[in-house]
Design a protein that fits this description.
- α1 packs across α4.
- The chain is built from seven helices and 13 strands.
- β7 (about 170-175) and β8 form a beta hairpin.
- By secondary structure, the protein is α/β, with parallel strands linked by helices.
- The two termini are about 25 Å apart.
- It has a single domain, classed as Spore Coat Polysaccharide Biosynthesis Protein SpsA, Chain A (Alpha-Beta Complex), CATH 3.90.550.
- It is globular, with a radius of gyration of 19 Å.
- It is about 30% helix and about 25% strand.
- Strands 1, 2, 3, 4, 6, 7, 8, 9, 10, 11 and 12 form an eleven-stranded mixed beta sheet that branches. A two-stranded antiparallel sheet has the order 5-13.
Length: about 300
């Protein structure tokens, strides 16, 4: 079994000032997604599903076909691709969209867009985050080992202090785990940053309160492992979410919200997977020079071939 990689690439890039998922950051014009695809293929993934917006779907498809057309999986078979769109009106029947809403429904809603094209265990990543080779291998091994299981999911965790941006505040899903390595809760926090005293704080989405966060807290960078039963469970939770939020203009349906709901209901559990990889990404335009320098360093040291694809 070859797991599938689901890439969340429908973000508008409002804080960044453009489509981050299509920005060329590597020494030969590579995007961050290019590095994720490279690492995923080496780890044994067999298909990539892109979640995009309709207005740039054609451009993404052309870019992908031109760049990855000759990429082979580790078994020699061609790497498969699918494209699905996330739009505001793609919601369950019986709900009427607020015509003034412009903000997407969030990451968990994006995943639901792929329910008809994914039938195997799958990973979820952001299109604008670099996760590292080891994290893909760890997650691919977990997905293969859990084929056929239900209600058992996974999260690749990163130390919170290693996921901050020097350019501004960020949002992260911060969790707690039990002695067996399973999450007991995961809560989305916004406005995360170090204050003048070096203390990390963030605003909890559940209470709206600003709280202190531990530097080594388990932090979700949206690198998840799911089995296909997740789609049905998540759709049920989304329906309940819309009952309370259908008229809202900014409320979002996040992956951590779904996982936290499943844990509390006792219908799912999420295993923490440890990795030696270090994360970096482009949340703000000011992050770009540092990412460009890091990818150039990878090329200079031979961590990745340069160019990445030929």
């Amino acid at each position: 079994m070859k797991p599938t990689l689901l890439v969340l690439a429908a973000g508008m890039g409002s804080r960044y000032g453009g489509l981050k998922q299509m920005d060329t950051l590597g020494p030969n014009g590579e995007t961050i997604i290019d590095y994720s695809i490279y690492d995923a293929v080496r780890a044994g993934f067999g298909k990539v599903v892109y979640i995009v917006r309709e207005y740039f779907k054609d451009d993404m498809m052309k870019a992908v076909n031109a760049k990855y057309g000759n990429v082979k999986c580790i078994d020699g078979e061609p790497l498969e691709f699918e494209f699905v769109t996330q739009e505001l009106d793609k919601i369950p029947e019986g709900f009427v969209l607020n015509p003034e809403r412009q903000k997407p429904w969030g990451t968990a809603h994006a995943i639901l867009m792929a329910k008809d094209v994914i039938k195997e265990p799958f990973a979820v990543i952001n299109g604008d985050d670099y996760y590292g080779r080891d994290s893909f291998q760890v997650l691919a091994d977990w997905l293969r080992a859990n084929e056929g299981n239900t209600g058992h999911y996974s999260l690749v965790g990163f130390r919170l202090e290693n996921t901050l941006s020097e350019s501004g505040q960020v949002s992260r899903g911060v969790g707690a785990a039990d002695d067996n390595g399973f999450l007991t809760s995961v809560v989305e926090h916004h406005e995360i940053a170090r204050n003048e005293d070096g203390i990390i704080t963030g605003r909890a989405s559940t209470t709206g309160e600003v709280v202190e966060l531990a530097p080594d807290a388990l932090c979700s960078m949206n690198m998840w492992g799911f089995t296909p039963d997740y789609f049905e469970k998540s759709e049920e939770i989304f329906t309940d979410f819309l009952k309370d939020n259908i008229t809202e203009l900014k409320s979002e349906f996040y992956i951590p919200f779904v996982i936290d709901s499943l844990i509390k209901k006792g219908t799912g559990k999420c295993e923490l997977l440890k990795t030696t990889s270090k994360w970096f990404g482009v949340t703000f335009k000011e992050d770009r020079p540092g990412v460009v320098a890091k990818l150039q360093e990878f090329a200079d040291k031979g961590v990745y071939p340069s160019p990445l694809y030929e």
